[in-house]
Specification:
170 residues; 4-stranded antiparallel beta sheet; homodimer; 4 helices; Cyclic Phosphodiesterase, Chain: A
Chain lengths: 170, 170
């Protein structure tokens, strides 16, 4: 089965991201707006149990932290994905690092750039248009993060949450 | 904020339900296939924390159980919703009851009939057609349930998982 690990920002940020995703992101209905911590990976039940135990240890050792978002950026020319750029604070980088070393296979396809995708798979003209408009916008979003989620993928491409890991518990 | 409580069956059952939901359920993209334990309710942050503590107590006191599904039924003539009927075993009824008494406001609009919706809001002709076909099918699905999920609703109508409660933990 395919698994992934993500942070869901709080409702106001999800709503704001969805207002754009609805029009510009074909994955809109597959998963709520999120910050990917660990990209898709395969695991059987035994391996999964081992990883869940490790994820609990990681969550227990993590303190809630604040994220800041104040610009829209793009992964062009690699892909034309447009995203809310999440300030890459050390605690977030450390958290992601822990899920891609040791018992975890490194599933990163790219260096970790914390982000919330708001548009992808656009045609070139639409991409230029949307990005040209959004990259100029001034805004500031702030959010408290106190948990991450382990998800698995269904046959239709969508994701279901398997377990929530709250920071500093137990 | 609006919250709800649900069980996600395991992937094979979700995939099977989605194969039908994709065509027949306009809520298909709002939430994965699920058994609703507690219908939509409102709570502020204080109330939510109180309820989460209660949900932990409930989960701790619940042992994993097996559910069985072997027929498709409909809520007609009340609504034309078509669903996988989940055998109403006592442990499931008890679990649902605990979330609708005491600290929890009873949010049931109808008596509790455990089910996984596969079709809703169909036109009469399509409903008759789909239900006529599905109610004749013979099948047997069995699943282990060891957790439930607390979700909140976004502005677009979709649901995000807030926290998972695993049975018999802590």
């Amino acid at each position: 089965m395919n698994y992934g690990i993500a942070i869901f920002p709080s409702k106001p940020i999800q709503d704001q991201a969805n207002a754009l995703r609805k029009r510009y992101d074909p994955h809109y209905s597959w998963i709520p707006p999120h910050i990917t911590l660990k990209e898709k990976f395969e695991a059987d039940d035994n391996k999964l149990n081992e990883l869940i135990s490790e994820l609990k240890t990681i969550a227990n050792a993590t303190e809630p932290f604040t994220i800041n978002i104040d610009k829209v950026r793009s992964f062009a020319p690699i892909t034309n994905t447009i995203y809310f750029k999440v300030e890459p604070i050390q605690v977030l980088l450390d958290l992601q690092e822990k899920m891609n070393t040791g018992k975890f296979k490194d599933t990163n396809k790219h260096p970790f750039v914390p982000h919330i995708t708001i548009a992808q798979d656009l045609l070139d003209d639409e991409y230029s248009d949307v990005y040209g408009r959004l990259e100029m916008e001034e805004f500031h979003l702030e959010d408290q993060v106190d948990r991450f989620q382990l998800l698995y993928q269904l046959d239709n491409g969508s994701w279901t949450v398997y377990e929530t890991f709250v920071f500093g518990k137990e």
